[in-house]
UniProtKB/TrEMBL annotation, chain B:
One of its GO terms (molecular function) is metal ion binding. SUPFAM superfamilies: Ferredoxin reductase-like, C-terminal NADP-linked domain (SSF52343), Riboflavin synthase domain-like (SSF63380). Residues 1-96 form the FAD-binding FR-type domain. This is Dihydroorotate oxidase B, electron transfer subunit. [2Fe-2S] cluster binds at C223, C226, C238. Binds 1 FAD per subunit. Binds 1 [2Fe-2S] cluster per subunit. Keywords: 2Fe-2S, FAD, Flavoprotein, Iron, Iron-sulfur, Metal-binding. The keyword Transferase does not apply. The gene is pyrK_1. Its cofactor is FAD; [2Fe-2S] cluster. InterPro entries: Cyt_c3_hydrogenase_gsu, Dihydroorotate_DH_Fe-S-bd, FAD-bd_FR_type, FNR_nucleotide-bd, OxRdtase_FAD/NAD-bd, PyrK_electron_transfer, Riboflavin_synthase-like_b-brl. The keyword Protein biosynthesis does not apply.
Length: 469, 289
């Protein structure tokens, strides 16, 4: 009861009016005192329902009580047993619908938002460890003479790299871009996940002896099959993500000033276009921006638009806020920063001026009809409800499908009708020695799920290599 | 890191560079390109066609025109310097077979991407006519190289300072009127030129391949920035192209999209020149003192 009386600790954040003009992280992280207090709210439940909600089954009461006792190093060690990237997951995991949703404290207080802030504590412990301990690396078994190629450098691949390298196998990561990290580097913006954190993890891999080859597009620079047949890799992991932007297929979508969220965020983050004075890659100096979609990607695009100088940002979503796939926290942050939400509306076409540049977007109003296959009520357009919003830029953020580059150049690899690689319960693909995981298997999912897949694939790879002696 | 092995200037603002890239040299086929980026943090990723490759040396050849900030920076490199990032080969290779007779049209710097394609068409047994055009004699590139592979070479300049005084569409029309008419046309150059070449061959129903040079970032189909409308459908130039049926391409939209960052690029370009001028001045001051 005493514990229940401790008020939930709110994490300090940058003021919305200030932060919408800078790229620095929004949430500043708990102070030590806050972290101890928040950790003390945990009841150390015997059955630990929170663990059930965590896709990688972190020992939550274990690490939380370590923080309560002031032993941050132990907390970090417990985290690292199940998750390779706690500093990342603590920031971007959809905690409120995973671990925290099941938390006894939140249930008792009848408010999910009052659950123990597991994610924020995870972040605290991981940040502490990084700052104090400067990235200690795990022990590595003696060389086995086996080698594994990992395609992509997102969270799934990072997990495989660490787990396989630990067993003493040589690991080479192949990344299409000039920088490793996947969506964590090119997609999720700095104000939500600072690049330093991801770079520190990558540096850790390098120090473990993992070789990282950037500027290497499998399927083009080398075929997947050749990695095995010509280059002699004993196993290959495909963690290429879901990098194929979906468009609306509406009139005006190829006008000047229409971006996919991938392009918009890549220009801004990876190419650093927000540093207009230093970066060679341009991005439009937009004033009024419409973002289409309601997921994390849409929130990131909308909030980036302000940081790139927009005065007005309109977020247009077909259903209601309740159905938005974005994290609650991201929606709240976007609203605080001044993003105008247009729910139950959808773009019908984009209008251009005589130079083919975006000048407005025409939308239709929607209402909720009968539930569809997903159980969500289907949005139905209201005929004749057209209206326009003046904008100079449109960002389409309605999701990603799987990028077909590898499957097109690897006919042996079985994919389902959405282009996702088919795998068994050990993340083995239809091709001998080839494993896959993360968004390329799951469709656009989450960092933590990608890591979970990576773990499983790594186990199977290690088993294969062990069996082959 | 890819070392620059050799560099020479071919024409005003046009450079040929041999760059160490053994894996790319091995895999590349005509029609494919690389993306290069000079500075890993702040550099721009720009696509350049692989004009040639040497697997023994492990090198690829790039021919580029210095038109703005990133190509300027590239042009400043000397043999021994390195380009931080070179990725490829990207795009679909050209479909090569013995079509019968082929006419290849290169406008300006377009002669560079055209060269490996013309070479492959010739090797596949086609009767090859090459038409190359430039604004003036100084800007003409690869004339000797083309002459060496073509059965027939037509050279023209806008101002008549070299070869015929004509736009490339003029000889192209004449070639289309021949009997038998060509089985294939390939046109590569500035978008407006490709648009008019496609317009020229259309009435003769000569299948016409164009190689599009839209703005790119990743070159792997991830961003959609390079999209064009072809036959009413959206296609990504970096993975579905760069070559398309010229009679189906919406060139007007493509040209507009190429101008997306014009005002920003022009500022950068000017800044670039001011910096260069300041540097030259500084240098001459140092030298005179
Ligand atoms: C804007 C945005 C915001 C998001 N926000 C969240 C969030 O808040 N919380 C959350 O949990 N998840 C979020 N996600 C989803 C999450 O980022 C992904 O689910 C996760 O990154 C998937 O990891 P992955 O390892 O499968 O691949 P990715 O992170 O997608 O990485 C794949 C890598 O493979 C490389 N690659 C692709 N093809 C090739 C090839 N042929 N050869 C070589 N390399 C190749 C790519 O360049 C890339 O670096 C977000 C995604 C986006 C785009
Ligand atoms: C598949 C392909 C192959 C190409 N091959 C060659 C070649 O062999 N030789 C050559 O000289 N040029 C080639 N180009 C064009 C070359 O990429 C551009 O000239 C270069 O990007 C200009 O960059 P800049 O910063 O120097 O100039 P800027 O002043 O920034 O741009 C000048 C113009 O180039 C275009 N451009 C700008 N940024 C990009 C970009 N990231 N990607 C593509 N185009 C851009 C725009 O239309 C712009 O208005 C090719 C383009 C493509 C798409
Ligand atoms: S990894 Fe995600 S779900 Fe698991 S405990 Fe951490 S925040 Fe919760
Ligand atoms: S459910 Fe909540 S209170 Fe119980 S152990 Fe997990 S975090 Fe602690
Ligand atoms: S350059 Fe990004 S999809 Fe083509
Ligand atoms: Mg440029």
């Amino acid at each position: 009861k005493e514990r229940m009386a401790i008020p939930p600790q709110t994490i300090p954040e940058q003021d919305p009016a200030v932060r919408r003009h800078n790229m620095n992280e929004v949430a500043l992280g708990y102070t030590e005192e806050q972290a101890r207090l928040e950790a003390m709210r945990c009841l150390k439940c015997k059955n630990a329902p929170c663990i059930e909600g965590c896709p990688v089954r972190i020992d939550i009461p274990g690490f939380v009580s370590a923080i309560a006792e002031g032993d941050d190093d132990r907390a970090a060690q417990i985290l690292k047993r199940n998750s390779l990237l706690p500093a990342v997951c603590g920031r971007v995991c959809p905690q409120e619908t995973q671990c925290q949703e099941h938390c006894t404290v939140g249930k008792a207080l009848k408010d999910r938002d009052q659950a123990v802030a597991i994610g924020k504590l995870e972040r605290f412990a991981a940040d502490r460890e990084r700052e104090h301990n400067g990235g200690a690396i795990p022990g590595i078994q003696p060389d086995t003479g086996k080698k594994v190629a990992i395609i992509g450098t997102g969270p799934a691949s990072i997990t495989v790299a660490a787990d396989v390298r630990r067993e003493g196998h040589a690991v080479t990561m192949l990344e299409a871009f000039h920088k490793p990290g996947g969506v964590m580097i090119y997609g999720i913006p700095e104000f939500r996940l600072p690049n330093d954190i991801v770079e520190a993890e990558i540096e850790g891999l390098r120090r473990m002896g993992v070789e990282i080859k950037t500027n290497f597009v499998v399927g083009r620079t080398r075929k997947l099959k050749d990695l095995i047949e010509k280059d002699g890799y004993d196993a290959v992991f495909v963690g290429t993500g879901a990098g194929l932007p979906r468009f609306m297929n509406i009139e005006g979508e190829n006008l000047v000033g229409v971006y996919s969220a991938n392009e918009y965020l890549t220009r801004s983050n990876l190419m650093r276009a927000y540093e207009r004075d230093r970066a060679d890659t341009p991005i439009l100096e937009s004033k009024q921006v419409a973002v289409l979609g309601g997921g994390n990607v849409a929130m990131d695009a909308a909030r980036s638009a302000f940081r790139l100088g927009a005065e007005e940002v309109h977020l247009i979503y077909r259903r209601t806020e309740k159905e938005m796939p974005a994290r609650v926290e991201e929606v709240a942050h976007a609203k605080e920063e001044g993003v105008e939400f247009h729910v139950l509306q959808n773009a019908k076409r984009i209008l251009g001026d005589e130079h083919g540049r975006v000048k407005a977007i025409e939308c239709l109003r929607y209402e909720l009809g009968e539930p569809d296959d997903s159980g969500r009520r289907r949005p139905v357009a209201i005929e004749g409800s057209e209206f326009t919003i003046d904008v100079d830029t449109v960002v389409v953020a309605i999701g990603n499908s799987s990028n077909p580059l590898i499957s097109q150049t690897t006919p042996e690899l079985k994919v389902n009708r959405w282009g996702n690689i088919e795998v068994d319960e050990d993340n083995r693909s239809s091709m001998d020695r080839v494993y896959a995981g993360g968004d390329i298997v799951l469709g656009a999912a989450t960092v933590i799920l990608a890591m979970g897949e990576g773990r499983r694939a790594a186990e199977a790879i290690n088993a294969q290599l062990r069996d082959e002696g | 890191m890819n070392k620059v092995i050799a560099k020479e200037q071919l024409a005003e603002e046009v450079y040929r560079m041999r760059v160490h890239a053994p894996l790319i040299a091995e895999e590349r086929r005509p029609g494919q390109f690389v993306i290069v980026q000079q500075d890993t943090d702040y550099g721009e990723r720009i696509p350049l066609t692989i004009a040639d490759a040497d697997t023994d040396e492990g090198s690829i050849t790039l021919i580029f025109q210095s038109v703005g900030k990133s190509t300027h920076k590239l042009a400043e490199l000397e043999p021994g310097d390195a380009i931080n990032n070179v990725v490829g080969p990207l795009g679909k290779p050209t479909h090569i077979e013995n079509f019968g007779t082929a006419v290849c049209v290169g406008g300006g710097i377009g002669a560079a991407p055209l060269y490996p394609i013309a070479q492959a068409l010739k090797e596949a047994g086609n009767h090859l006519t090459v038409i190359i055009g430039a604004r003036n004699a100084e800007l003409m590139i690869l004339e000797d190289e083309m002459r060496a592979i073509a059965d027939e070479l037509i050279v023209c300049t806008d101002d008549g300072s070299h070869g015929r005084k004509a736009l490339v569409t003029e000889p192209l029309k004449e070639v289309c009127e021949r009997d038998p008419r060509p089985d294939l046309a390939v046109a590569i150059g500035p978008p407006v030129m490709m648009k008019f070449c496609a317009g020229t061959t259309r009435p003769y129903e000569v299948p016409t391949v164009v190689s599009l040079n839209t703005i790119m970032i990743d070159g792997t189909g991830m961003c959609g920035g390079c999209r064009v409308t072809v036959g009413g459908e959206t296609r990504f130039v970096c993975v579905d192209g760069p070559e398309f049926d010229g009679h189906q391409v919406d060139f007007d939209n493509m040209i507009q999209r190429l101008g997306t960052y014009k005002p920003l690029e022009d500022d950068e370009h000017e800044q670039c020149h001011l910096e260069m001028a300041a540097r030259d001045k500084e240098q001459s001051r140092n030298e005179s003192s």
